[in-house]
Structures are given as structure tokens and as C-alpha cells.
Design brief:
Blueprint (H helix, E strand, L loop, with lengths): L2 H14 L20 E2 L10 E3 L3 E4 L5 E6 L5 E8 L2 E9 L7 H14 L3 E7 L2 E10 L13 E12 L2 E8 L6 H12 L2 E2 L18 H10 L3 H4 L23 E5 L2
Parallel strand pairs: 1-11
Antiparallel strand pairs: 2-3, 3-11, 4-5, 4-12, 5-6, 6-10, 7-8, 8-9, 9-10
């Protein structure tokens, strides 16, 4: 007799005798990880992190954190700078049952190829990633003609978490030099994602916010000419959860400290 059928008969017999069934507890499968972290599993590691709402990013000595703002002063991206290298970080909603990095990775590779990029799948410290070169235009300087697009190294990292997907884009020397990449990789590993419980469409960006003190500083800057002309350094960009490797920088940015 199949085990499942026998179990059902036992359960029915117990119910007929008035014995309540044992509660069915479904445990969440948890894979061992060394980071990035879900907020429910984040370690007490003593690392100072800046709270941007859905992301808590490490504040490391010598590393600059910049957030990109849209015209409404809403946070639309976060970037860590180490020397001449950048790590752009974004988090998105994902299904409960499965990850989306395999699909997103294919979308990025396909779109990037159409824009002149040359990317290949390689195994990295966070699993399969995309590495190679992309074509991007440096930011235009006031009063100067738009610069010609240039080819530069880039890496696209992806990590699937519980109902979230975290994407990292490394550009600059760290994209082709493992030694230069070590510090940014450690920063990516220390990221904590706060998914929240509200339902969201798959691939929709998780909401980011500025800390209160930084938000007040940005509001004050916007009242002066320096704030109105603020620009963000260029980095390879992708729309929500993947796609294009190029695009215009956000209208403004601000640098945060711990």
C-alpha cells in the first residue's frame, strides 16, 4: 500500500475518534550563505550600515556611497565607489517559489549584445555572473560636446533571495582586476535586503529612501545653484532587473556617510 494512502486512512481514523491531527508545519528552506543577506538572517557582525529602506549598505572606510535621485528627489539607485571603481546596487521583487537571476542574466546579455557589448557567463564569488565589456558614454561636461561612447570592462552580479533579487554592476578597474574587485565584492557580500511583506510585481524595484538627515541636506541643496546642477557619475546601468547596459544618469545625486 502506498505510504500516502495509508497516512490518509490513519488521519481519517483519528478524526473519527475525535483526536485532532498533528499541525502541519512547513519549514522555510534556508541555504547557507556568507552574504548578501536577507534581513531575517543578517548577522550581528558589527558592520555599520546605512539604511536606505529596502537596502542596508555597508559604510566602509575609504569607500564613498552615492545615491541617485530623480526629479521628485526619490532615490532610484545606490552606488559604492572604491578608488576609480564603482559598484551599483539595486534590489527587486521576485517570486516566492523560484529565483529570477537565470532569466534576468539572459535578458541583460541579449540587450547588451544589441548595444555593442561583449559579455560571457563566468563563475564568480556569487555564482554565475556576466563579465566582459560594455559601450557607454561618459557624462557630458557643461558647455562641452557630448563625448564619444567608449568600451570599458563591466561585471553583472546577481543573487536570488527570499522573494527578492539583488543585482550588482561593477565598472572600472575592479571589473577586470580581481585584486581591485576584492573590496567591492566584500561590500556586496555585506548588503542586507529588507523585502517587506507587501505584494509587489516581479522585477519591480524595491523602494529606497534617504535617511532623514540626508533628505534634509538634499532639500537644502536643491535651493541653491549647486544642487540644481548636481550630476551623477556614469556607470553601466540596467532598467528594473535587467535589460539595457546604457542610459542617462539620474538628474541628481548625493553622497552619504556613516
Amino acid at each position: 500500500m502506498p505510504f500516502g494512502r495509508r497516512r490518509n486512512r490513519i488521519d481519517r481514523s483519528l478524526r473519527e475518534r475525535g483526536v485532532p491531527p498533528e499541525p502541519q508545519v512547513r519549514e522555510r528552506d534556508i541555504e547557507e550563505t556568507a552574504g548578501p543577506w536577507d534581513v531575517a538572517d543578517a548577522p550581528d557582525d558589527g558592520i555599520t550600515r546605512l539604511d536606505l529602506g529596502a537596502l542596508r549598505l555597508p559604510a566602509r572606510p575609504g569607500m564613498e556611497l552615492r545615491v541617485d535621485l530623480d526629479q521628485q528627489q526619490q532615490v532610484v539607485g545606490a552606488t559604492l565607489r572604491s578608488g576609480d571603481s564603482l559598484l551599483s546596487i539595486a534590489a527587486f521583487a521576485a517570486p516566492r517559489a523560484a529565483g529570477i537571476w537565470d532569466e534576468v542574466r539572459g535578458d541583460i546579455a541579449k540587450t547588451a549584445s544589441g548595444q555593442g557589448a561583449s559579455l560571457r557567463e563566468v563563475e564568480g564569488p556569487f555564482g554565475t555572473e556576466l563579465a566582459g565589456t560594455v559601450v557607454a558614454a561618459p557624462p557630458a561636461q557643461p558647455g562641452q560636446p557630448a563625448p564619444e561612447p567608449t568600451r570599458r570592462p563591466a561585471r553583472f552580479l546577481g543573487v536570488d533571495g527570499p522573494r527578492w533579487f539583488l543585482r550588482g554592476t561593477i565598472s572600472g578597474p575592479a571589473a577586470s582586476n580581481p585584486e581591485a574587485a576584492a573590496e567591492l565584492e566584500e561590500a556586496f557580500r555585506a548588503v542586507v535586503v529588507v523585502r517587506g511583506s507587501e505584494p509587489m510585481p516581479v522585477r519591480e524595484a524595491l523602494p529606497l529612501t534617504l535617511p532623514a538627515e540626508a533628505a534634509a541636506r538634499v532639500a537644502a541643496q536643491q535651493q541653491g545653484p549647486a544642487g540644481r546642477s548636481a550630476g551623477a557619475a556614469a556607470a553601466p546601468r540596467t532598467p528594473p532587473a535587467g535589460g539595457s547596459t546604457g542610459g542617462s544618469p539620474a538628474p541628481g545625486s548625493t553622497t552619504l556617510g556613516p
